[in-house]
Amino acid sequence: MKRAWLLTGPPGVGKTSVIRQAVTRLEAGGFYTEEIRESGVRQGFRLVTLDGKSAMLAHVEFKSPHRVGKYGVDVASLEQVGVAALRRAIQEDPVVVIDEIGKMELFSEAFRQVVLEALESGKKVLGTIMLKPYPWADEIKRRPEVNLVRLSLDNRQQVLIQTRLWLRGQGGE
Q: Which CATH class is domain 4-167?
């Protein structure tokens, strides 16, 4: 059975929702991301750890040399909250949650390093990874311990069931 289960798919298909539902009532550490909306318009992204901490990851009003589209990325917050949560999870939890391995997060060398540490830790890693080609992310997708699962609106419920079974050690390839 593969130790890493990474969901991929286009934006808005429900990758984070599947992750959050799958780890309900499960001993896990790490983080997920959520949109910040104002008057129905996406303004940025917040990083939320499974132990309750949060930090602003990106926002349209951030002045940063690190940008993805209209969003400035706060690499320091990612490292102080997100990378720290992943390090704790590798040490303390049976499941490490990484939502997401994407362009914003990949600005951080510390994030890249902790992703590799998680994959090499022997723990289960449940995460999401960007769909579009990107050299570093593509290398992660090809690693032998990774099961890459393409999520769509049509298969979302089935993928959730498969993910829960994998987390219980009852499937995974």
A: alpha beta
